[in-house]
Amino acid sequence: MTAPSEYALEVANLKKAFGGLTVTQDVSLTVRPGERRLIIGPNGAGKTTLFNQISGDLRPNSGTIRLFNADITYLPPYRRAHRGLSRTYQIITLFADDTLEHNVSLGMLGLRPSRWQMWRPMASYADIKTEARRALDAVGLLHLADHPISDIAYGERRRVELAVALAQQPRVLLLDEPLAGLSNTERATVKSLIASIPRETTLIMIEHDMDTALDLAETVTLLNYGRVIVDGQRDAVIADERTREVYLGA
Amino acid sequence: MKWVGAALLGGSLLLPPFLAGDFYINLASQILIAAIFALSLNLLVGFGGMTSLGHASYLGVAAYMSALLTSRYGFDHGTAALISISGTIAMAAFFGVIALRASGLGFLMITLALSQVLWGLAYRMSNVTNGDNGVTGLTRPAPFGISLDNPVAFYWFSLIVATVAFLMMMIFVSSAFGSSLKGVRDQPRRMAALGFNPWLIRWITFIYAGFWGGVSGLLYVYYHKYIHPSSLSITSSAEALLGVIAGGSSALGGPAVGAALVLLLKNYASAYIERWNMLLGLVFLFIVLVMPAGIVPGFSRLITGRGAPR
To answer: Are residues A247 and A175 part of one domain?
Structure first.
């Protein structure tokens, strides 16, 4: 029995270099359960690289990542998913030829033992189907459930990404630029969607659209050149001199 | 429409014993064997996105094992078949571990290299395999006391095995596991983030494809009552791959149609044209130009009147 964890996610002294280029330099940060954390920083600050290390797509050169007190630094991505970590991608990676429902179903299947089932047709899992449609309903896309992804608009795909992640009921959800490329109306829709995510899910979000994202965040981490520059409560970080210097352009 | 076509095709498989002479019945049996072989390869190529150029390994090893066990070591056919299939599965599991270290072209080259090793062994280890002379004097099994020595009986036997194989592979690809496999083919990184283990999914599929390759190998050696190193050669692997591509790897039945085409050209057209390989090349060129997705997807699009995909 491990001690109840104080933090949902704990990153300590993380380092990652591609050849001579160090993209993550000694990054440490902690996120409490239920927290809404926004990660900001200019292009090339190492935000997505940090996400890729947390989700397991990339291995850090050194440092540790702990999820609810368990060391996940060297776990493969799928083991992290089973521990309650889910993510969305900046570049949409849905299954274009499959229906919306199938996309969400796949995400749910990934966490169930039935993913190894070789006899029963995928289509016969009524519970997965029901839940997938519920998840699509939650993002307002139930009416398109039977359409292939390639039929729907970009903004709608962003919402499907979110539905796939949310249907997994993650404990920690990483959102990599969930608002990228959306129109103002779509932004408002996705924003209220993110705002409605239950508190059981800890949220860590990379986003450039400060107007929208700051409303969603409680705490903010500012990265620059692979380092944490400022870290703390939203208003304190925004008011900080260094934030203005690096990001907002004083 | 799709089901009508499938039913017609399925029904026509019942006809040869009543309409045709021995030559054509034998040809039909060989088509069924080649079809199982191509279908098993397509689990890797079409559904797994793993293009293998060494699938003859499984056909050849199962065939050689059965041939040697029955002719030299005095095993009965049932036991020999069981050992051959188990051996083939074990070999696929081992080869899978090696080949799945790479993907794409690397995977193709490793599967090719592994199968060439076996081909070389079959040729050179002549104290075991009888080398270039092949293993002769084999018999066909007699399940439930029914002799398979006449062409009609053997055709029914092949048809039953082929039907079971087809249905089993159909169930496999439409299952939850099949969905995972297709997901891993299209977006491995995404699938891993969703909780799937891409390597294990590929490895299991690799073994399953090897198993059906082995089954086709048994039928192959029963049919010919003879086995030669050429069954393990790159030509044997490449013909199956050609069948998969020509028939269409995206349709479940495509490889069976493609395998039939290759076999007909090889066995039938070669009686009239010495350079049947050239004819095969021309036919293949035609398919690639006119129906790039393969014969079956090409025709079904023609019938349903839908435009080219994407």
So the answer is: yes
Please give the backbone phi and psi of residue A12, each rounded to the nearest 5 degrees, phi first. Answer: -130, 125
Q: Does B308 touch chain A (CB under 8 A)?
A: no
Q: Are B129 and B135 in contact (CB under 8 A)?
A: yes
Boundaries of domain holding A161: 95-169
By Cβ distance, the residue of B176, B189, B198 closest to A109 is: B176
- Domain assignment present for residue A19? The answer is yes
The count of domains in chain A is 2
Give the mean model confidence (pLDDT) for residues A214-241.
90
pLDDT band at residue A3 using 50, 70 and 90 as cut-offs: low
With CB atoms and an 8 Å threshold, state whether B193 touches A114.
Answer: no
Rounded distance between C-alpha atoms, residue A194 and residue A199, angstroms: 11
Q: B2-304 maps to which CATH number?
A: 1.10.3470
Rounded average pLDDT over B42-51: 95
Count the Cβ atoms, other than its own, within 10 Å of residue B31: 22
Nearest to B187 among A82, A93, A111 (CB): A93
As a whole-number percent, the residues of chain B with pLDDT over 90 amount to 67
pLDDT band at A86 (very low <50, low <70, confident <90, very high): very high
* A29 and A72 co-located in one domain: yes
The last residue of a domain, from among A169, A201, A216: A169
Q: What integer pLDDT is reported at residue B306 of this predicted model?
A: 57
User: Within an 8 Å CB–CB cutoff, is residue B167 touching chain A?
Assistant: no
Picking from A149, A169, A189, the residue at the C-terminal end of a domain is A169
Chain-centroid distance of CA B238 in Å reads 11
- In this structure, which amino acid lies at residue B65? M
The residue of chain B nearest to residue A120, with distances taken between CA atoms, is B175
Q: Residues B259-305: pLDDT tens digits? A: 999 999 888 888 888 888 888 889 889 998 988 888 888 888 877 76
B187 inside 8 A of chain A by CB? yes
Is A90 a member of any domain?
no
Query: Would the pLDDT of B29 be above 70?
Result: yes
Domain ranges (residues) in chain B: 2-304
Buried/exposed A20-57: b ≥16 CB within 10 Å, e otherwise: eebbbbebebbbebebbbbbbbeeebbbbbbbbbbbbb
Substitution target from A89, A104, A114, A116 for chain B, most B beta carbons within 10 A: A116
CATH assignment of the domain containing A226 = 3.40.50.300
Q: Which of B43, B170, B179 to mutate to test the interface with A (most CBs of A within 10 A)?
A: B179
Same domain, A126 and A189: no
Domain membership flag for residue A210: yes
Per DSSP bridges, beta strands A202-206 and A172-176 are: parallel
- Same domain? For A174 and A71 the reply is yes
Q: With beta carbons less than 8 A apart as the criterion, state whether B218 and B62 touch.
A: yes
Q: Give the pLDDT confidence of A15-57 residue by residue, as tens digits.
A: 999 988 889 999 999 999 999 999 998 888 899 999 999 999 9
